[in-house]
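**Backbone shape codes:**
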Amino acid sequence: MKRLLFAIALAGCSAPLPDEPVGGLFEVYRDTDVQIASKALFEPEKYLGTWYEVARFPVPFERGCAGVTAEYGQGDNGQITVLNTCRNLDGTVRSTISGFADIVGPGRLAVTFPTLPFGASDYWVLWTDDGYRTAVVGAPDGRSGWILNRDPDIPADRLNAAREVLDFNGYDLSRLVMVPQGNVE
């Protein structure tokens, strides 16, 4: 119950972007009867660095966020550090949150943000291109999903490949939202 109240309060703190659909706390974006698979040959060291969120399924905690970045670094004891940044359309930072991820299987991370009142969340890397320039991330429960890219502009061929991966894993592509980049630096 605490988790629900916190998420509702957090979602109410930010305004949506123009024409932004706002997902519900327990909204599911994939057919959970479809088997989901993480990247078997995932190489965590190649995943480290900055990623730009170019598309997402609406989640309350990203309501109104543009120019979103995720930075992954090498932490202690094999953990991966996580820093997510939400920006306004003008590029100014609206909020950040930091945490860590434990590798729990090939392409499978358990991400924890200590400032939030709930435990680790499943974060599965479903696909990356060979050069780790584009990634697709999802969760078995289907409540989240993202297309990430190493720079704000994603080439059409990699965007199409990422969308195909989401579709293959049972995601409803009609609910996928492109993320405005604004003045991201």
About this structure: The chain is about 15% helix and 35% strand. The beta strands are 49-56, 66-74, 80-87, 93-105, 108-112, 121-128, 134-138, 145-149, 177-178.
